[in-house]
Write a structure and sequence with these properties.
The chain has 14 helices and 26 strands. The protein has 509 residues and is α/β, with parallel strands linked by helices. A hairpin with a 7-residue loop joins strand 25 (495-498) and strand 26. The protein has helices spanning 22-38, 52-55, 68-74, 79-91, 105-112, 127-135, 149-161, 186-193, 211-218, 244-261, 271-278, 348-363, 484-487, 491-494; strands at 9-13, 42-49, 95-100, 116-119, 140-143, 166-171, 198-202, 223-228, 241-242, 283-286, 301-304, 322-324, 339-341, 373-377, 390-397, 400-407, 412-418, 423-429, 432-436, 439-443, 448-451, 457-460, 465-472, 479-481, 495-498, 506-507. The two termini are 54 Å apart. An eight-stranded parallel barrel has the order 1-2-3-4-5-6-7-8, surrounded by six helices. Helix content is 27%, strand content 26%.
Length: 509
């Protein structure tokens, strides 16, 4: 089964709104397609299939007290009519999607060549039907209305074990949904619990309400579903189905929220924003006439508005770390050309790295206890730690050993082997690139690599990664590097050990 991209997919459910009338169904497809193309939306028109001869019990084909059955029977279409509607969707350049409510409908969906198959909430625990859907080898979108979390666990595991490309829709099976029953926070739960699965929002709210799609998108929903239809003199559309004008507003609200949400990675700082901040920044000024060669103390400077373009600000202040090159007059701004700033603290690069490492651990949901040592490996010197090295968190070192290796973005650990230690790496977060015995490989999260004693290996990461190392006992004199200069270094020259990274307490090697 090939992967399918469920991201930014809109599902427009025709359901029974065709009213059993082919002409009306074609008109709905045509009008919805106009809105889709207007907003450059990637959309699928969804049908619903039931084979009524077997789907409905014989005793209920007339005068049934089940409210759905008369509606289903009154809106039947023939197979030929479905094929005409299917072709119309394709001609509009949209994807085709269908919900089977019985086993007999699944092979019809496959034979017609639908792009996607849908599991309705009412069928999400219908295991005979789910088995046939999985066998159809189509990408699957499953709604989760009325499902407890363990039911969703079962559904996701079912499709994963069968190799079916699938996505989930957070859904509330009430038509329309009361405000108290949206529970859009559940999107967060699903995204965290099923990290590899695209999560969407299947809506049944008042169709003039565009706020839910904006909140759902901000929560991380990547798919959206809504019923669609048309009013006529004979047909009054239900409150949870969109008319074309409502669809237009819905898409417009989505595009607006897309702009507002912006990038999910690093937020760019524009020149306009920086200028705005500069206008509120406090610049550094001297309190009295200062001679050349003075080490500035807190009493020698003050910070005030307005900030003069290019001057030092309160952000640049280092107590007893700024030396004047020449004389500076009272109340004059201090510019970089006026002073020398002491950056001789050799541990600053390591201290700065700690903040980034903590953020990476938080982002990967990795929690540490309070009893561990941190080892900075800086094989080409502390000043070059960001380019060459790694941060190693020692968790356990007995007859067995466990470490976490954090490789910062762009950082590389040089080629080496261990005389005694055998180790296995498992990537927990990010791509771990390595060369093992001359062969270049990449570990994706969850993947493992065995490194036996005496085998040369080196590693790096373009965007940063966290790797778990499980090994036999670690020994400090066990590593041999291909770079002979590293071998000649004392351990204290290539390693800095920290006991408590909050207070940065150094341990002598």
């Amino acid at each position: 089964m090939k992967n399918f991209d469920f991201n930014d997919l809109f599902v427009l459910d025709l359901a029974n709104n065709h009213q059993g009338n082919l002409k009306h169904g074609l008109k709905i497809i045509q009008e919805c397609s106009k809105m889709v193309h207007k907003h450059n939306i990637r959309a699928a028109i969804k049908f619903q299939f039931r084979q009524y001869e077997s789907f409905i019990h014989p005793n209920h084909k007339k005068n049934s007290d089940n409210k759905h059955i008369p509606r289903f029977l009154s809106t039947q279409l023939s197979q030929k009519e479905w094929e005409i509607l299917f072709k119309a969707v394709k001609n509009e350049g949209l994807l085709t999607m269908c919900t089977p409510f019985d086993n007999e409908s699944v092979p019809i969906i496959s034979d017609m060549g639908f792009d996607i198959i849908k599991v309705a909430s009412c069928s999400a625990k219908d295991w005979p039907l789910l088995e046939d859907i999985a066998f159809a080898s189509l990408p699957v979108v499953a709604s989760t209305g009325g499902l407890k979390i363990n039911d969703i666990d079962n559904l996701v595991s079912f499709f994963e074990h069968r190799g079916v490309a699938h996505a989930l829709m957070h859904c509330v099976s009430i038509y329309p949904i009361p405000q108290d029953d949206f529970h859009l926070n559940h999107i967060d739960t699903l995204r965290k619990r099923y990290k590899k699965t695209v999560i969407g929002w299947s809506t049944h709210e008042d169709q003039d309400d565009t706020v839910p799609i904006q909140i759902a998108m901000a929560k991380g929903a990547k798919m959206f579903e809504r019923h669609v239809g048309l009013d006529t003199d004979e047909v009054k559309l239900n409150v949870y189905s969109s008319r074309p004008k409502q669809l237009d507003k819905w898409f417009e609200a989505y595009r607006y929220s897309e702009i507002l949400c912006g990038s999910s990675t690093h937020r760019p700082i524009t020149a306009v924003e920086q200028e705005s901040l500069d206008g509120l920044q406090r610049g550094m000024f001297v309190t009295n006439d200062i001679e050349a060669g003075v080490i500035l103390s807190a009493s020698d400077v003050y910070f005030a508005m307005p900030f003069v373009s290019g001057q030092l600000s309160s952000e640049n202040w280092i107590e007893n770390g700024i030396h004047t090159r020449g004389a500076i007059k009272k109340d004059a701004p201090v510019f970089p050309s006026d002073v020398d700033i002491d950056s001789s603290n050799k541990y600053k690069v390591l201290k700065d790295a700690i903040h980034e490492v903590k953020a990476m651990l938080n982002n990967a949901s990795i929690t540490l206890n309070s009893e561990f040592n941190i080892e900075f490996s800086h094989h080409h010197g502390i000043e070059n730690f960001r380019e060459v090295g790694a941060l190693i968190i020692d968790c356990v070192n007995r007859e067995y050993c466990k470490k976490l290796i954090v490789v910062l973005p762009g950082q590389k650990h040089p080629s080496h082997f261990h005389k005694r230690k055998e180790e296995t790496f498992q990537s927990l977060s990010g791509d771990f690139e390595y060369i093992l015995d001359g062969r270049k490989k990449v570990l994706k999260p969850g993947e493992t690599a065995l490194v036996q004693p005496g085998v040369w290996h080196e590693f790096w990461s373009k965007d940063g990664c966290i790797v778990e190392e499980i090994s036999t006992t670690h020994y400090n004199d066990d590593s041999t590097y291909s770079d002979k200069k590293i071998n000649d270094l004392k351990r204290s020259q290539r390693k800095t050990v920290v006991k408590n990274w909050g207070r940065f307490e150094l341990i002598e090697n």
